[in-house]
TrEMBL record:
This is Glycosyltransferase. It comes from the Bacteria. Gene3D superfamilies: Glycogen Phosphorylase B. Pfam families: EryCIII-like_C. It comes from Prauserella halophila. Residues 245-347 form the Erythromycin biosynthesis protein CIII-like C-terminal domain.
């Protein structure tokens, strides 16, 4: 098959699907991947043909809007910019698109071909619209929400899509879900047309990293994702609370490691770390509970200490704590608090190994690729 994949120009949205795209290419499908130009090098190793557009998404060192309507507008504006590039590609057999890659569903309508969403977050469940009605009405009434919905309605009308805006963004015709089912709220009420494959951890992200030999202390990995990483206070608290009894590997994102001062023996820090490799060796993961990191913590069987920063992270943190996979300490997140939480998380190792086995039984890359082939062929 010839497939077009429309992504979102944010690493947290791209990483979860790279293993799947690589597998589809290996199976002989021709995949064209549409993404913002700055992430072309991230996608290229999959073997997909990369078609780029100038993205308006915030770069790694830029700030996301705190207002929800404004943040939603960022995704929509980028989709509007991506659509002309997408429809300029030869008509494919089907379209794959990220949960925020709205241009993909619109392009599929333009071509009259099947569209399959690849969801990197939890999906809608039966009754969700009714349960969220009060929240959504308040959002629509806000200045930013009013602008967002007006822009979306105009764009859908311009492209001949007579569909409710919330249905367009939240209810895909078919979907392969790339998160563990145990992290899906109200999973028992999710429609059967949504296929849960779970994490598709890309083998190409593995670098062979290993901790320095000769140190048997438990290893704690500290990372807050790619967007909300300006928390030197958390990094310093982990150093002060854990050094000595634990080895600590920090991914500091937007924070210069030099700003953390002198690091004790057994503590290493860099702006980025090879996360799958580090998790392979970690005993505890101090995490922001972004969905990608939450899913990977379960895939590798690593208990979490949860310090959510924004967007869906509080929901994800609550799910991890509820299933026995994590500890969510109260603030302030100082050295004694985080030390106590890490100690407690170590006691969850057996439960998290059980969850790891359950998550891996979901099928991962193979199940996701099988589902994409079936859904695209069925239409």
């Amino acid at each position: 098959m010839q497939l077009v994949m429309v992504g979102v120009t944010a690493p947290s949205h791209v990483y979860p699907g790279l293993g799947l795209i690589t597998e589809l290419v290996a199976r002989g499908h021709r995949v064209t991947y549409v993404v913002g130009d700055r992430l072309a090098d991230l996608v290229a190793p999959t073997g997909a043909e990369v078609v780029t557009h100038p993205s308006t998404m915030p770069a790694a060192d830029e700030h996301w809007p705190e207002d929800l309507g404004e943040a939603m507008q960022v995704f929509l504006d980028d989709a509007i910019r991506a659509l002309p590039v997408a429809v300029g590609i030869d008509r494919p057999d089907a379209v794959l698109y990220d949960i925020g890659g709205f241009a993909g569903r619109t392009a599929a309508h333009h071509w009259g071909v099947p569209a399959v969403q690849l969801s990197t977050a939890y999906v809608a469940w039966e009754g969700m619209a009714e349960e969220m009605m009060e929240f959504n009405e308040a959002l629509r009434a806000s200045p930013s929400g009013e602008k967002y919905y007006a822009t979306l309605r105009a764009w859908l009308d311009e492209n001949g899509m007579d569909i409710d805006a919330d249905e367009f963004t939240g209810t895909p015709p078919s979907c392969v879900v790339l998160i563990p089912r145990v992290l899906q709220p109200n999973a028992e009420r999710v429609a059967d047309r949504y296929v849960f494959a779970g994490p598709c951890v890309d083998p190409a992200r593995r670098t062979g990293w290993k901790p320095e030999p000769g140190d048997d202390r438990p290893l704690v990995y500290v990372a807050l994702g790619t967007s909300y990483t300006e928390r030197p206070d958390i990094y310093r608290a982990c150093i002060d609370g854990l050094a000595g009894d634990y080895r600590v590997v920090l991914a500091t994102g937007k924070v210069d490691p030099a700003d953390l001062g002198e690091l004790p023996q057994g503590v290493t820090a860099a702006r980025t770390q090879p996360q799958p490799d580090v998790l392979e060796h970690a005993s505890v993961f101090v995490s922001h509970a972004g969905m990608g990191s939450a899913a990977e913590s379960l895939w590798f069987g690593v208990p979490t200490v949860l310090v959510p920063q924004a967007v869906d992270q509080s929901t994800n943190a609550g799910m991890l704590a509820a299933i026995g996979a994590g500890v969510q300490p109260g603030e302030p997140w100082d050295a004694p608090t985080l030390r106590a939480a890490v100690d407690a998380a170590c006691g969850k190792a057996e439960r998290v190994r059980e969850l790891r086995d359950e998550v891996r039984a979901g099928g991962g890359i193979e199940r996701a690729a099988d589902a994409v082939e079936r859904l695209c062929a069925r239409g």
